[in-house]
Predict the 3D structure of the following.
Amino acid sequence: MLHIQTQSSDTTILFAARELKRYLEKMSSAPLEIALNQTAAVGDSILSLGLFADFSLSAEALQDPQSDDAIDIKVEQLNGRIAGSNPRSVLIAVYRFLELSGCCWLRPGKDGDVIPQKDITGLSAVLQDTASYRHRGMCIEGSVSLENMLDSVAWAPKVGLNTYMLEFMLPYLYFDKWYSHHGNPFKEPEPRSIEECYAYKAMIAREIKRRGMTYHDMGHGWTCTAVGLPAELVRPWNAFYPEIEPGVQKKMDKYLAMIDGERKIVHDSPLNTNLCYGNPEVRDIMVDNMLTYCLQHPEVDVLHLWLGDSWNTQCECELCADTTPSDFMIMICNKLDKVLARHKVKTKICFIAYVDTMWPPQNEHLENPDRFMLLYAPISRTYSEPYDDNTEGVVLQPYVRNKLPRPRHVRENIGYLKEWFKTFAGDGLCFEYHFWLDHYFDPGYYAMGKILAQDIRQLEKLGLNGIIEDQTQRAYFPTGFPMYLYGKTLWNKDAGFDALAKAYFAGAFGEDADACLRYMASLSELFDPVYLRGDKGEAVNPGMVEKLARIPALVAAFKPVIDRNLSARDTAVALSWRYLSDHSQMVIMLADALKARAGGDMQAARTYWRQLERYAYALEDQIQPALDVHDFTRSLARLFAE
Ligand SMILES: [Zn+2]
């Protein structure tokens, strides 16, 4: 008999124990009784779960054992301990132990785990490991169902992720994109109400907290609540808000940013609209609203303060003209810190270097940096080059109100980050977009991983302590390798791209893993993401015609390997091959469309592209958990625009 015993009644550690029990029961080839927190008899096996202190293990090497994850596994013949520096680390340690025992976490959801069948009484593992970076997270984006979100939250700690963010007051748009099936000609809308989506957000937050993950919330929206406009990311906003109440209109007339002499909503979006931050009443209202939110949501570990979601829309009035938006943001932070302290609120606040606030403050500085984190969000960067801390020779543009450029080169973006760090020496992390729209430029899902891994390795040199990816939650098509790579490299920055590729593909594809890896690398090379992003100049490109023309033969040569694996015994492995099978049809169609485009025949290119769009939407129910068809088509459609 096996006993799993926890050293405390912490809910996350109890959850870790239940997960361990659940997976060991699935794994055991012979019937085995597993008891949870019961007294063991002589001769029983015991696996003990707890914090480092429960086993007299030292956490001294960690800056902050609550925030920094470390694990210690010592199991011999199914007897021993699985320990973590905090409850979340205990859960991560359980998944690592299971992984060392042969489990593979290929992707979220049904048939995502490979669980070997074996005699588990001989399981042994010894491992001491510390995460390279503190912040390892995902943030909701794309088009998602509630199930997609719950599956994603459940999968995240299996690959070592420890942070989850639910963006905005309500991430309504992301749910609505899925449930209304925007763009899909084959599905009837199943829209959800605002109230239902608030319930979804609460359910997802509970699952994040159950796993002890750090929960980040909000971001854009404080500019909306300040004047009484909807902050739920609804579009078109005026469909949800047909008549503006006189009280709201009065506040808009007074508090919205003045641009070209007018205080009005920009881009038809309250979330994109900035406020007149030079007006102290505006700053006070924002501070009050953030305090209220913290008091109402004690489950939030990190609350984000972002300004309007747009470039070059700052107020031009005389109260604002001489002060940068970053200076105003820091003024709000300082005031907020004081009122939070007065109310004994410990919530951390994350402010952002993004669009106009990529330019650091000129005069203000944080009075209590320990309360704060800097979120570095280089949304205009290219993914054709990795992070590089060498900024020698880079020319930075001065801050000029509403006339800022959008820096594309990575070293230029890093240059602004370095300027920020001259004013703030605290905790910093990235908000990144590898898995938002850019990853669709790499149908091999291989080359983008190389940039991602290099970016992660560079974080330490840049003074950043992790990443939250603003991403579709369905980024597993055709393989889950880039997301696996993401979690594993954030945990161990020196894990190595090739070693992780070998491990992932072996788990996902079995005996033909090496051939599959070569196939994916070849697809990346022939589609050439650098070209698709537009970083090689003109769309018309004879060299690309030649490369794209080689894709059908590449796919045809690999198709027999796919076909013979579709009935693999393990259902998770079989699903990996089924996704590759669906993908193989799509890449041939995409190659046809892109080849016509590279040859200058846009009419043919658009015809091929529309066929592919239709094909992908027709397949959507089959590939839903792995591919965000809405964002896939939205991203690539730009290449075929009229
Ligand atoms: Zn102003």
Observations:
- The mean pLDDT is 97.
- The chain has 22 helices and 18 strands.
